[in-house]
């Protein structure tokens, strides 16, 4: 279990993240603000994590110092930026593109881990060479999925109207936001690893992370979202997305990732990101009728056409 546990846990976390991307995309396509989505989901996660963290760490809790709390705040700041960049990129594109760009996270994390001496780089060791090659391949794959469109691998079913992912997308702008998300996420993982060395109480760390993300979200929302209707949870997909994000996204996924990070290190946690692209591709093709290319995905914009017959000019 010590060996298999982190593997199983990270696969479950990636499944939860793909689901989070899908429900958040649907909620934002129904007009929900990404900042309000971050606020509600992290606030709900705080309500779940507060009693859970106190029960799980009811004995042997390390003392909280101002230095540790300051580290929690910095972690929350990076987490807020990562969510802001990530949801903006998803809103401009799709969950499938987001999971493709996340292939950059292992590379950036490995570079930062070596820089901060959390990972040793030995050019004579096979493991180190494999990590370097994997870093280059993952980055090349992310850029390929963003900018290159090859031949069809899987076509969408005839007459299938993709309501969820049928928006015209600015792939370059979306890719830029998602790329910034990857950089910030990699830094987030490194900061998390450094804090866990001083304060190895995983759920308490995740609680304070969500708490500070919620506080920062309130400040931004009060400035950016002055329309009172933007704060409502109607239609129901908004409430569903917030509920899923708070429990399975912020609480479960981040909690599992932190637990694995404490036991395996940042590179191990980040290297599971490419699994998300397989999960997202399967869900997109089976459930949403995506057309899969050798390269990036295409989404038919039949909802925006005046003609009832889809044509090749309506793909991006």
UniProtKB/TrEMBL annotation:
Signal sequence region: none
The keyword Manganese is annotated on this UniProt entry: no
Residues passing through the membrane, by range: 31-52, 64-85, 97-116, 128-148, 171-196, 203-225, 237-262, 274-294
Predominant location category: membrane
Record localization: Membrane
Gene Ontology MF, one: transmembrane transporter activity
Alphabetical UniProt keywords: Membrane, Transmembrane, Transmembrane helix
Superkingdom: Eukaryota
Gene Ontology cellular component list: membrane
Membrane topology term: Multi-pass membrane protein
Domain EamA residue range list: 20-144
InterPro entries found in the cross-reference section: EamA_dom (IPR000620), EmrE-like (IPR037185), WAT1-related (IPR030184)
Keyword Nucleus: no
Family to which this protein belongs: Belongs to the drug/metabolite transporter (DMT) superfamily. Plant drug/metabolite exporter (P-DME) (TC 2.A.7.4) family.
Name of the protein in its database record: WAT1-related protein
Organism: Linum tenue
């Amino acid at each position: 279990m010590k060996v298999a546990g982190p593997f199983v846990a990270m696969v479950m976390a990636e499944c939860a993240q793909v689901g989070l991307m899908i429900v958040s995309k649907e909620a934002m396509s129904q007009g929900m603000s990404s900042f309000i989505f971050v606020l509600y989901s992290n606030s709900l996660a705080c309500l779940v994590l507060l009693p859970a963290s106190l029960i799980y760490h009811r004995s042997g809790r390390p003392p909280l110092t101002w230095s540790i709390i300051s580290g929690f705040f910095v972690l929350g700041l990076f987490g807020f930026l990562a969510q802001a960049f990530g949801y903006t990129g998803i809103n401009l594109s799709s969950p499938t593109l987001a999971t493709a760009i996340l292939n950059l996270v292992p590379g950036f994390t490995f570079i930062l881990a070596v820089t901060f001496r959390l990972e040793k780089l030995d050019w004579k060791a096979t493991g180190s060479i494999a990590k370097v090659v994997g870093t280059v391949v993952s980055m090349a794959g992310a850029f390929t999925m963003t900018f290159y469109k090859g031949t069809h691998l899987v076509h969408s079913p005839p007459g299938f109207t993709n309501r969820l992912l049928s928006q015209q997308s600015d792939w370059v702008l979306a890719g830029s936001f998602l790329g910034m998300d990857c950089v910030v996420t990699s830094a987030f993982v490194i900061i998390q690893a450094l804090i866990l060395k001083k304060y190895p109480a995983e759920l308490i760390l995740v609680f304070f992370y969500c708490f500070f993300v919620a506080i920062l979200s309130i400040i931004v929302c009060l400035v950016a979202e002055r329309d009172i209707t933007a704060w409502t949870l109607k239609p129901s997909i908004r409430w569903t997305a917030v509920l899923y994000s708070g429990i399975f996204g912020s609480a479960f996924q981040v909690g599992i990732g932190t637990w694995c990070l404490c036991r395996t290190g940042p590179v191990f946690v980040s290297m599971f990101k490419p699994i998300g692209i397989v999960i997202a591709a399967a869900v997109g093709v089976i459930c949403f009728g995506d057309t899969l290319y050798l390269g990036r995905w295409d989404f038919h914009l039949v909802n925006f056409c005046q003609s009832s017959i889809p044509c090749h000019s309506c793909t991006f």
